[in-house]
Amino acid sequence: MTPETALKTRExxxxxxxxxxxxxxxxEFLEELRGESERLIADHTEHEEFRYQGQHVNVRGEDNPxxxxxxxxxxxxxxxxxxxxxxFQTSGGIIILTKEAKGPPLYWHQDWxxxxxxxxxxxxxxxxxxxxxxxxxxxxxxxxxxxxxxHLKRIPLHDQLVPxxxxxxxxxxxxxxxxxxxxxxxxxxxxxxxxxxxxxARILHSAGRNxxxxxxxxxxxxxxxxxxxxxxxxxxxxxEVVANRDPDQKYEGSRIPGxxxxx
Length: 263
What we know:
Layout: H1 3-16, E1 18-21, H2 27-42, E2 56-60, H3 65-71, H4 74-83, E3 88-99, E4 106-109, E5 127-133, E6 144-146, E7 187-189, E8 196-200, E9 205-207, E10 216-225, H5 240-243
């Protein structure tokens, strides 16, 4: 990645809440990940509550050398460094998520769990997801959908959603008029299997239905900064609530956007 490309990609991430980096996985490692994910899925029973996420298999890198290889994959680490995200560290594990053949869509949600913390207003990401898709994605097989900018800006949809995952969304019906709705500003994010998708945990995202007869598999890895200091690359305005944040205060966790997410 050239410095110019890295700067543009980081600007996209900061503005839109996501970005795509091409050619991160080699063909050989991609095949290795496909084989290992299929092996792990074969020994797993899909739970009904995960029907919108398909197979939901948690794997720790310390328990699986191939997954550890992914967590330490040098092209991914180099890309993060080039973007200025070198202070993000892996959680130590991944989740294998699938969109099964003819599988249902995934509901709108965001994954930030610190909405009571003023750091929610940071114009830079604090927690990001790394999505490795093991097949090419398109609208037909349920590619990622995002609403750009919703990591920093409140929209009506924020206040209409059932709280994410175990707090309610996993148990809704597919006929829910809001959770699976088309939103005017949504963007489909089709990618090739060798690419890496980065996303801010705060961004509203979902995935479409898989209309094909083949499984669409994703390996999800969470990374976070273990500091709330201003990143070295940041030269823009720092919101007052972030600048004055008390680093010693304990903020109660919450998945529901509160006062810090403004329209």
